[in-house]
Task: inverse folding
């Protein structure tokens, strides 16, 4: 399904930013696949190579991140789960320090203590974590703080569709609704919680329908469509900033890779991923921008070059940086 | 005599075989948890069971630990024998109320009138750079709370025998298995993750430590990875003429005091190595037991090797710095034995 042209009421600069950011995010993940595989050949060992540990990549899920982050400012909060790179990039997290963190370097966002699931960039109010649904109440707290401070800041929390079945989802949504907080929950439905399909785990067809249970707004975005995500998010952010309370947005999105790198993916059909790749939202947006005369081939290539250069520089920075000294493991437990 | 080829299994296959045998034996046994079905458990603990027994007895759950661990409690109270999996022990935070206010206390609060014959199995341990929320063992956190048996087998042989015991036990058993000792193809390949496992069903007690190496000079108590590190250190110490006795703790609650005390009365020196946090942990408990009951048998102060009180860091040099290893045990043992 192509992206429809009638939806292109988005300012050209925003559209270009969304495209460039999706390209940056995708290229970041593609580069990470290679970096992660270093030292893990011919025998895969999760603890080997320059980027060890679990690695959850967001390839295919870029529309969710850019569609809403296009409406956010630096002061707005974003919390994210174990699959955080596309959100971090769209929120403007320092790419060099984020990459360095994944390489376990002292120049990383957490001086090498956190790793890819635990990125914290307070400068742009971004955080993520490895426990399902745990970021939702943190966003509730950020939204509460905005309200207490009298600011029109909003808090956006990204979760997978599996997180909607965790207790924290329900508790947080009810609280945010009762307190009418500027919270937006973006549920990325990539169809699987690791191996368990949404069909087998979730009683409702889409999680935006749960909004009714909290008396708040809900919206659904089909087909991994970044333009529709932009449109729906615009309303949700407006609603939040104006004090009209929370929104749940569910977006149908696609996980092109395994739950983690090294996932044998025996729970899904071999044909599924090639099929998903044909629906690539980046390819579709590129085509649309050219067909609609929004950008020329040359302009698009220039956006792509800029995005990739930034990623290459971030990886170079990460690789060239030093490891922390072993005894630095004992620092930062408490603030001084 | 004809040589008998030993039947070797990885840790995960030994566990899955135990569950398989008990499911065949007892229709009340069933499994529920995240990715225990088609995936076979993220750490392979239920490999092949879904194919054999189907989704009614090997149940994939939503990411709803409070609900499915609580449901296991409810089903156990009805006389079923559920085995439920908490994927990573680190995830206990979202469901600890069910575990310790209910699973651990209902038998007691009911004056023994309600039994909960269930197993809560969970993956523990670090060493592969999975960072602070996926690398803990939390042995002591669980062992601290009365009302649950807590075991941590270190070999495929014991994983099978203790799992069978756990399933047949009428009490809730927290069954902690170490990821690195599962023998999974995508993790470090350790010799320790493969051992001889008899084909038939057999039990290993849930309350007995195991002297895995006899020695006269120093006792080293460990469990799971630290037990294997202790054995490695003992080999090196033997080359220096120091004979270490290595005890595989196996069971955290109840703890087998006698085996530890007997060993310390023989060697007069004790090192406890633990992949959990130092303070208020396994090393503290065992030190206290020895201080209370065998203080005057000691010729030197007890040495503790555990994770200094920091969360597990991600970066390799940082993680390796905080984790115990064979070399740290070896160095402490040398110092301890040479201390006057």
Result:
């Amino acid at each position: 399904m192509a992206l429809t042209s009638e939806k292109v009421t988005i300012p050209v600069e925003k559209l270009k930013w969304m495209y460039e950011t999706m390209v940056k995010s995708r290229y970041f993940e593609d580069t990470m696949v290679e970096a992660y595989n270093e030292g893990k050949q011919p025998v895969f060992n999760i603890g080997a190579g320059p980027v060890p540990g679990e690695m959850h990549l967001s390839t295919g899920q870029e529309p969710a991140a850019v569609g809403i982050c296009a409406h956010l400012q630096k002061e707005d909060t974003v919390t994210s789960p174990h699959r955080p790179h596309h959100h971090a990039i769209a929120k403007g997290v320092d790419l060099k320090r984020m990459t360095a963190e994944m390489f376990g370097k002292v120049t990383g966002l957490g001086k090498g203590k956190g790793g890819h699931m635990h990125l914290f960039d307070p400068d742009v109010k971004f955080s993520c974590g490895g426990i399902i649904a745990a970021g939702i109440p943190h966003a509730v707290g950020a939204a509460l703080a905005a309200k207490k401070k009298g600011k029109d800041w909003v808090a956006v929390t990204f979760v997978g569709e599996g997180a909607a079945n965790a207790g924290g989802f329900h508790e947080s949504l009810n609280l945010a609704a009762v307190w009418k907080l500027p919270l937006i929950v973006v549920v990325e439905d990539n169809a699987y919680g690791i191996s368990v399909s949404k069909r087998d785990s979730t009683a409702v067809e889409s999680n935006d329908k749960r909004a009714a249970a909290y008396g708040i707004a809900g919206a659904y975005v089909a087909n991994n469509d970044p333009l529709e995500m932009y449109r729906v998010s615009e309303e949700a952010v407006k609603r939040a900033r104006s004090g009209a309370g929370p929104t749940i947005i569910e977006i149908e999105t696609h996980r092109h890779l395994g739950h983690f790198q090294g996932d044998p993916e025996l729970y899904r059909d071999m044909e599924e991923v090639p099929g998903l790749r044909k629906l690539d939202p980046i390819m579709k947006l590129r085509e649309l921008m050219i067909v609609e005369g929004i950008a020329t081939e040359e302009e698009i290539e220039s956006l792509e070059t800029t995005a990739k250069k930034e990623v290459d520089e971030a990886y170079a920075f990460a690789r060239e940086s030093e490891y922390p000294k072993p005894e630095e493991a004992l620092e930062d437990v408490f603030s001084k | 005599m004809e040589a008998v080829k030993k039947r070797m299994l990885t840790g995960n296959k030994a566990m899955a075989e135990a569950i398989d045998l008990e499911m065949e034996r007892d229709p009340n046994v069933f499994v529920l948890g995240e990715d225990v079905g088609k995936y076979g458990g993220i750490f392979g603990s239920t490999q092949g069971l879904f194919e054999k027994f189907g989704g009614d007895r090997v149940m994939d759950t939503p990411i709803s630990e409070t609900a499915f661990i609580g449901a296991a409690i409810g089903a156990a109270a009805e006389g079923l024998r559920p085995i439920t999996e908490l994927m990573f022990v680190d995830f206990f935070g979202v469901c600890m109320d069910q575990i310790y206010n209910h699973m651990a206390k209902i038998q007691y609060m009911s004056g023994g009138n309600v039994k909960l014959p269930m197993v809560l199995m969970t993956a523990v341990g670090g060493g592969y750079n999975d960072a602070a929320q996926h690398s803990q063992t939390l042995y002591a956190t669980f062992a601290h709370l009365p009302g649950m048996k807590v075991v941590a087998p270190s070999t495929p042989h014991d994983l099978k025998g203790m799992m069978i015991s756990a399933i047949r036990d009428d009490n809730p058993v927290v069954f902690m298995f170490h990821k690195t000792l599962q023998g999974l193809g995508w993790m470090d390949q350790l010799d320790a993750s493969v051992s001889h496992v008899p084909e038939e069903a057999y039990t290993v007690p849930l309350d007995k430590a195991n002297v895995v190496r006899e020695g006269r000079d120093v006792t080293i108590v460990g469990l799971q990875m630290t037990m294997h590190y202790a054995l490695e250190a003992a080999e090196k110490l033997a080359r220096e003429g120091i004979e270490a006795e290595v005890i595989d703790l196996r069971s955290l609650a109840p703890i087998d005091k006698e085996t530890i005390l007997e060993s310390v009365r023989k060697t007069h020196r004790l090192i406890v190595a633990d992949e959990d946090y130092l303070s208020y942990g396994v090393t503290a408990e065992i030190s206290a037991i020895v201080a209370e009951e065998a203080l005057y048998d000691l010729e030197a102060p007890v040495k503790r090797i555990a994770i200094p009180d920091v969360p597990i860091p991600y970066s390799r040099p940082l993680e390796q710095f905080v984790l115990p290893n064979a070399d740290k045990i070896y160095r402490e043992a040398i110092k301890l034995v040479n201390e006057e």
Notes: Residues 5-318 of chain A form a domain with the Rossmann fold fold (CATH 3.40.50.970).
